[in-house]
Amino acid sequence: MGCPLKAIKESSWEDARGNFCDLIIQISCSDARVDIVNRTFLEFKKAHQTEKNGSFESDLADSLWFIDSIIGDYSDQNVSDKFLRILDNLTQHVTHGLLMERLSEDTLQALSLIASKDAFNKRYVRCKTRIFFKQRKFNLLREESEGYAKLLSLLIQTNGPADLIMQQIWSLIGYFDLDPNRVLDIILDVGVHRTNVHPLFVDIFRRYNCDKTDLTNYLGHKFQQGTSKESFS
Q1: Which residue of 105, 144, 161, 172 is most buried, as measured by CB atoms within 10 A?
Q2: For residues 191 and 194, what is the distance between their CA atoms, to the nearest angstrom?
Q3: What is the rounded distance in angstroms from the CA atom of residue 147 to the CA atom of residue 179?
Q4: Where are the transmembrane segments (predicted)?
């Protein structure tokens, strides 16, 4: 194995990191004593302080991730157990947040940083789905007052053309996460009162690409509401 302490001490940061990673892998796969890592760790950290301006914790976490990915390919349980003993000593120099980002689920579970890798993976999938795939839609005017105010201003003041209006409507829906059904409701309400441009709003409805069945049910509901109000008055 040579003299790992001397190799790391006399190396640049990048070489020291490579030597340190190789040392941990070699110790994990052999009968060498684990405390060798502790003796070389200070020189490894000193090499970082000499040449690097970034976070030592983050760079150490990257190194542990690299080693973890290699050790994970070994089927020998003794190799994994020895690596975990080394890792357990080094994790005190890295925040749990960085370890959670870098290390595999199996390693995190073995270090008791997570209770169960299956539960962790399920939670991860749910969070990822909520962040990247679940669409928020604001239905109430008070939930996204600026977006609906811009929509009303557009519909009240515009005189066409319909294709340009629709581009602006889609932009408002996308930018402010407006509920398309609520937008349709507002278009209909404004169109009813702007009697001088009824053909324009009919064209807007046609371009809105709403499901015909949904639109029929929706218009029926609006007509029923109007009839009820007239009967009440």
Answers
A1: 144
A2: 5
A3: 11
A4: none
Quote the CA–CA distance of 69 and 125 in Å, as a whole number. 21
The answer to whether 205 and 187 have CB atoms below 8 angstroms apart is yes
pLDDT digits (tens, 9 = 90+) for 208-229: 877 777 777 777 877 777 665 5
Identify which has the larger pLDDT, 70 or 48.
70
> Which tens digit of pLDDT belongs to each residue from 79-112?
888 988 888 888 888 888 888 888 888 888 988 8
What is the pTM assigned to this prediction? 0.50
Q: How far is CA 126 from CA 86, 123, 138, 161, in A?
A: 33, 5, 21, 43
Residue 138 has φ and ψ, to the nearest 5°, of -90, 120
